[in-house]
Amino acid sequence: MCTVTLIARRHGYALGMNRDEQLTRPVACPPSRRQCGPRTAILPSEPGGGTWIGVNDTGVTFALINWYSVTRRVAGKALSRGEVPLAVLATDSPTQAEETLESLALRRVNPFRLIGVFPARSAVVEWRWDLRTLTRHEHPWRTATWISSGHDESRAQRTRGGVFRAALRQRSAGTVDWLRRLHRSHRPETGPYCHCMHRADAATVSYTEVQFRRAAITVRYTPDAPCSCSSLSPLRFRSRA
C-alpha cells in the first residue's frame, strides 16, 4: 500500500512516496548510504535489509509498490519484494535495470510495480510483474502518480487519483511544498483512501522524498505519518552522472 508522486522538471525532478503498512510491521530503518554493486545509493530499509525506494549516485530513483489487483501469490516461501530495488539500484539505465530484473528469481517474488526515474534520459519506466510476465511501460517525462492499496485498490486509485488531478490545478503545483501537502492530505476524508492513510490496523507509516537538481541529490524522510511531521532532515550527496 503506497503512493508515489513524481514532479518532472526540465533539469531534474522531485519524488515523494508514502509507505502504507500494517501497524504490526517492524519499524523501518531511516535512509543511509549503501553500496549497490558499482553504485552508491541512499535508501531506507527493512530491518532485514530490503527496501521500497532508493536513489543512486547517478540520480536514478527506483520505487516499488505492491500490485494488489493481481491476486496470484507465490506458492511456498516467497522472496521479499524488497530485494528488487536493491538489485536495480546498481544500474543507471532502463536497459541495465531490465536485464537485472530478468536475472532475478521472479517466480519467487509476489506481484509488484517498479517505477524507475532516469533524469539523464528524461525517462520514466515502469515494470510490472504479475507472477507470469514482466512487462515494461514507458511514461512521458511529466508529473504523475502511482497508487497501490491492499484495501480496495481500484477505489483508492480513483480517490487519490482524483485528489491528485485537482491538486494539479493549484497555482503551487509542481513545487516541493505542493508535493508535501499532497502526501499529507486527508482529502476527501480521513480513512483508507486518502493519501495519508489511516485505518484501525494500518496507516501511512513513513514519507520519503527525493530531489535531484543539477547533480545534487537530497533525500528527506520521516518515520511517521506525513500529517504529523513538522520537519524533514536532509541527507545529501553529489551525482556522479
Briefly say what this structure is:
The chain is α+β, with helices and mostly antiparallel strands and 241 residues long.
Characterize the structure shown.
The protein is of the alpha+beta class. It is built from four helices and 13 strands. The strands form two sheets. Strands 3-4-5-6-7-8-9 form a seven-stranded antiparallel beta sheet. A six-stranded antiparallel beta sheet has the order 10-1-2-11-12-13. Strand 4 and strand 5 (53-56) form a beta hairpin.
Classify the helix fraction into a percent range: 10-25%
User: With helices defined by DSSP (H or I, 4 residues minimum), what is the helix count?
Assistant: 4
Report the strand count: 13
- N→C terminal distance: 32 Å
Name the shape in a single word: globular
Order of helices and strands: EEEEEEHHEEEEHHEEE
Integer average pLDDT: 95
Q: What portion of residues belong to β-strands?
A: 35-45%
Structural class of the secondary elements? alpha+beta
| Strand order of the biggest β-sheet | 3-4-5-6-7-8-9
Main sheet characteristics: 7 strands, antiparallel
Radius of gyration over C-alpha positions, nearest whole angstrom: 17 Å
Quaternary structure state of the chains depicted:
single chain
- Any low-confidence stretches, pLDDT <50, length ≥5? none
